[in-house]
């Protein structure tokens, strides 16, 4: 049913959104690596005034096993206020939750519920037959409906791409691309909504990821190393920008929230020449898109004995930048180094000259830095998916990357934890550290904050 | 009375952010240019006018073929049905593209107005224009109905344009868009009720 007034979580501009009230709940997708019991949508209490602050207060098991929940998103967001097709009286209410391994897409209702309720299952076959894709990943609400990126083709390796789902029925409408040009690999996507520009990134095809990182493919430089720019309106590929084939796995894309701006950040997992990680800026140069590397994070030397097999030949821990997140005011970029176990904060007021303003060590392949809430333990896993609150005051992170990759890089167990950083002093919140059995044997992957967060909404007004 | 209704309906359409003032404000903000806002509004009004004029053309063409009461009853049924569909359907207008040229903006406005049934809302007035009603049963060429209808469309669009311009400027210069969060009443639902109401009036006065 439509509302009489716009959904209160929709904001015309990033400035308005930054003034939003603090989230009281966080939704965290968690999966069972053994695929013997169902994955779950877990719900955490993020209200510091509450008695159950930092605890899991909601839990909904999926109906099947082996989905491997990964990323997910909302059915509607602030882009519903955009003037070209306004529909602001819908509700931000449903979570669209893809299973990266099963290719199913689940729809969960969160309205007036602590534990979300399943309302729809889109079978892998529907996604495959209607859009030609499998392994659904990133979800964004946008002008034509819900956009869902997918890593693989239906019954074949590729190309991966983007499927469009209906805003209200959530039926798969079809494949988004009308002309994909040279694009084959897929991973993340987002847009400059006021400029009718879509940007997509590259990871690998299903066979390159599902059984773990394939060393030969990495050294053969076969993982993704390009960005693709598209005409959002005509669904056409416009330009491919190659970062250089040593830059393997261009993952998360974070365009500026200010709709007047035409730049954004992309994280690269590793450079095969020296195992460093990097952050890139894309921007417009004349009428063409260009990229520039703005941050290099070097690998840290380590004794072979301390390293998992996959890294022994290199004698170093790669930072493995697996996620980046840009605050809603476009001032701070948060970077997770899942290998070295570090969360970095950069002041990116000048996107071309990031200044490192904060660093927190937590976990890490070698360092195993403990959380202050459990100072005696050695912590496995590292900061992985990051989510920043709309007001920019809180950063949440979870520790699992992807089942088979967790096992390669943390062979003695990646563990399960979620942590929160208060950005005012850039310190870990000792009261917020759900971990271990709290997640009942599941591994937490991505966080979405109630009402929206720094990677959920796009805005049409500056 | 009729004139007041035409003007009020124009203002009602002008107030609705979906009908274009919001797009004009967005274009102005995006380019930091009030000129951009001001040049968008007449184009949006033109698209609206085209949508309403299309209904006038259809009415006057139909009017010359059937009797006035048949036209009124058909219009009433159409309005009630269209209004109910708007009320019950969850579909919303889809349009991709924020960077549009002025002709594209006019096309956008035409489509937006047509999908919302902006012209249909004027049916109670259009079906009761003198040339249409007095000529019932007698053969005529609809010339009177057509010109009268076009005058109605023109006045209606002018009212819509003035209202939209005032709101766009106030929001752009003073109020700011944060106001949308509180003040963007679901006019589309009101709109659906208005369509049903207009249909009922048309039916009630058909005899």
TrEMBL record, chain A:
MF terms in GO: methanethiol oxidase activity; selenium binding
Catalytic activity: methanethiol + O2 + H2O = hydrogen sulfide + formaldehyde + H2O2 + H(+)
Any Pfam family matching the protein: SBP56
Compositionally skewed regions (Polar residues) per UniProt: 447-462
Coiled-coil regions listed in the entry: none
Pathway assigned in UniProt: Organosulfur degradation
Annotated stretches, region: Disordered: 439-462
Name of this protein: Methanethiol oxidase
Highest classification ranks of the organism: Bacteria, Bacillati, Actinomycetota, Actinomycetes, Streptosporangiales
From TrEMBL, chain B:
Keyword Transmembrane among UniProt keywords: yes
Keywords: Membrane, Transmembrane, Transmembrane helix
Statement: the UniProt record of this protein carries the keyword Coiled coil: no
Regions that span the bilayer: 6-25, 37-59, 65-85, 105-126, 146-175, 187-206
Protein name: Cell wall anchor protein
